[in-house]
Amino acid sequence: MEYHFEFSGKNIATDKAGYLLNVEDWQTDMAPTLAQTENIQLTDNHWEVVKFVRQFYLEFNTSPAMRALVKAMANEFGPEKGNSRYLFKLFPKGPAKQATKIAGLPKPAKCL
Amino acid sequence: MSQTNKIAIVNKSAPYGSSNGQESLDMALAMSNFAQEVSLFFIEDGVLQLLDTQRPTAIDAKAYHKTFKALEFYDIENIYVCKQSLAQRGIDSSQLCITTTLIETTELPELLASQQQVMCF
Amino acid sequence: MILHKVASSPFSHRALDHCLQRIHATDGLLLTQDAVYGLMDKELSTKLQQLEAVFVLKEDAEARGIEIEPSTIQLINYEQFVELCLKYEKVISW
Question: CATH code at B60?
């Protein structure tokens, strides 16, 4: 079974859970569409996290899991944004899971 | 897993001849999510995984060595590299992609003895 | 004329050593995959310089971050790899 959706006339392949299969397929305009599938309206604070996880992936070649996301966010933006309460307010169903999906990244590996 | 264990992951394989290196790293990242205290050891051909100038996209392999730089965000801070293994391969520690603790071959047994679990890749 | 192909790391396996003990002066030696790490070993490198024809698969060296100084060792791509296999009468994979 293959999964995909249409975006600007292009066919975008995803996995079963809606994560893009190819990181390069993502573009900024696509984020609101992906966010909608998670019932999220992107605010500036959302964008900040989405862009941050995207940058994290491009630099380290891995999607950050929750602990790493919190620590890296604290490192970059300070403790008021680098904590799980703040992140869960923005992404109620799991910040690492939802932000990486909206940023067009693979789902962070958590369980073996 | 509620209690914290001290777990050692020993890497002795070169990066692309097998998937050992990638699997070992995935394991380390996953375990740190469960608040385990993970220490990484690089010995023999395992030290080759840390070379900074690798460009594995040339053989369509994933550049997972970039992920070593993110280990600090996973609270993995004990990273040990065997001095003799580096010397044997003509590698200076400045050629590695992350800062590590250099150890003698003879220091390894003692360090492993203090761990609860050891996994070898 | 035989082309000897080695793919394993000389630090962990004996294949390259076994090959070097039995290679004829006019034979060719091709290092691929983890065997390219052999160039990091000074002693081994010196031994290789004494052979007539040593080839290294460029992509494999580049992927592993091995720099090859200009010498008698020839860097080849996949196409040249195929040509080599045809040029030599026989190929031994160690």
Answer: 3.40.1260.10
According to the model, what pLDDT value does residue A51 have?
97
Domains and CATH numbers, chain A: 27-102 (1.10.10.370)
Question: Residue C4 has which token pair?
Answer: 């000897």
DSSP label at A106? Answer: P
Which CATH superfamily does the domain covering C2-93 fall into?
A: DsrEFH-like (3.40.1260.10)
pLDDT digits (tens, 9 = 90+) for B54-106: 999 999 999 999 999 999 999 999 999 999 999 999 999 999 999 999 999 99
What is the spatial distance between Cα B79 and Cα B66, in angstroms, rounded to a whole number? 15
Q: How many domains would you assign to chain B?
A: 1
**Residue A105: which H helix or E strand, with range?**
none
pLDDT tens track for B71-85? 999 999 999 999 999
The rounded distance, in Å, linking the Cα atoms of A59 and A99 is 16
Q: Would an 8 Å CB–CB cutoff place C33 in contact with chain B?
A: yes
CB contact under 8 A, B54 and C9: no
The tens digit of pLDDT for each residue in C16-31 reads 999 999 999 889 999 9
* B chain contacts of residue A94, beta-carbon cutoff 8 Å: none
In this structure, which long-range contacts are made by residues C40-47, counting pairs with CB atoms below 8 Å and at least 24 apart in sequence?
A: C40/B89, C40/B90, C40/B91, C40/C66, C41/B88, C41/B89, C41/B90, C41/C10, C41/C11, C42/B90, C44/C10, C44/C16, C47/C20
Ordered by start, the domain boundaries in chain C are 2-93
Rounded-to-integer distance, Cα A102 and Cα A40, Å: 10
B27 assigned to some structural domain: yes
What ipTM goes with this model? 0.86
Residue B1 lies in a domain: no
Does some domain include residue B93? yes
| Catalytic residue list contains A23 | no
**C67 touching chain B per CB within 8 A:** yes
Under an 8 A CB cutoff, do B67 and A71 touch?
no
